[in-house]
Amino acid sequence: MAETTDTAEDATVADAAALGGTRPQDPPLLVAATVGEVTAVWQVEVDARVLLGDFSGAWLVDGDGIRGFAADADWIPQRGDRDAVLRTLLAHPVLLAEGDDPLPVDGVDVIDLDATVSGIHDRVRRNHDDFAAAHPGKRQPAWGAADAIGYRTQDGPAPHGLTGDAATAVTRCLAAARGLRALVRDWNRVEKLRAQRLGGDLQALPVELA
């Protein structure tokens, strides 16, 4: 498989203890790309208390079964049924990578990317307003411009050892996953600053569903 993990930057257990309390870890988001009979799935962590965005799983699913991280784990049943495997993997909201082939299973929560980014912009503007109300006349923290946070696919090296539809699916999926990871990192940076300056629990990337 291609790249599956990156080291989280500037995040420590101490950060989590200081900023996040002890609630269960926020569930990850998923990215999927289907080409022909092959679907690539990447998992992106979003918990602002621990990570700035990181990959934590990657799978290829086709008519021959499943390959990738913990592909033989007990929590992945019915490995001979592609659709059943995909429903198991895609249990959390899914960002669909760019491409012409639809996801081969129904009942999946699909992320509305435009609405999600718009909602993030609204929340950053709210941070400005809340800080101004709580601290009249004080200089604003370094939130950055609200519309500076956005999503862009990010190309990378071609996957090793894959050809045809599998290589195309992984390439598209990874480009989208890198873009989502960057969006998560931008959100978590602003969210940690909000918690430090305005208080309250850290919240994971707020997603809107299609």
Order of helices and strands: HEEEEHEHH
Unreliable stretches (pLDDT < 50, length at least 5) are 2-21
Average pLDDT, all residues: 86
Percent range for helical residues? 25-40%
Alpha carbon gap, first and last residue: 30 Å
Shape: elongated
Largest sheet descriptor: 5 strands, mixed
Main sheet strand line-up: 4-3-2-1-5
Number of strands: 5
Provide the gyration radius in Å.
18 Å
Number of helices: 4
Total domain units:
1
Question: Helix/strand/pairing class, anyone?
Answer: alpha+beta
Strand content: 5-15%
Protein name: N-acetylglucosamine-6-phosphate deacetylase
Organism: Corynebacterium nuruki
Question: Could you characterize the architecture of this molecule?
Answer:
The protein is an alpha+beta fold. The protein has one domain (13-198). It has four helices and five strands; from the N terminus they run H-E-E-E-E-H-E-H-H. It has helices at 13-20, 82-89, 113-134, 164-198; strands spanning 29-35, 38-45, 54-62, 65-68, 94-96. It has a five-stranded mixed beta sheet, with helices on both faces. A hairpin with an 8-residue loop joins strand 2 and strand 3 (54-62). The longest helix has 35 residues, at 164-198. Residues 1-20 are annotated as: Disordered. This is N-acetylglucosamine-6-phosphate deacetylase.
